[in-house]
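Whiteboard transcription, Tuesday session. T.W. wrote the structure tokens on the left side:
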């Protein structure tokens, strides 16, 4: 049985480090796929999906123009990452 729970929104700094980590981890996922480690790939896909949702929530709650622009750029890049993941890891 899966348990879902609400948690506090991620901070901008937290999102930034998470964003950076997901792009760095992509190379490891290529190796994981080659070795048949589907559980790692599923966990990675799940994490990227949650990152996308966290950025969407932060975008809605951010008023600072510069920070909002940074979040928009991150969101667009995560969308590209999601497309790549679906194409190469599904």
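and on the right, the sequence the group agreed on:
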């Amino acid at each position: 049985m899966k348990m879902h729970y609400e948690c506090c929104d991620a901070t901008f700094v937290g999102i930034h480090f998470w964003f950076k980590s997901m792009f760095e981890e992509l190379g490891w996922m290529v190796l994981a796929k080659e070795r048949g480690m589907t559980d790692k790939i599923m966990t990675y896909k799940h994490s990227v999906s949650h990152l996308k949702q966290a950025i969407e929530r932060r975008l809605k709650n951010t008023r600072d123009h510069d920070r909002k622009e940074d979040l928009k750029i991150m969101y667009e890049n995560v969308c590209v990452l999601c497309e790549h993941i679906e194409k190469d890891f599904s």
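Someone added at the bottom: Residues 12-89 form a domain with the Methane Monooxygenase Hydroxylase; Chain G, domain 1 fold (CATH 1.20.58).
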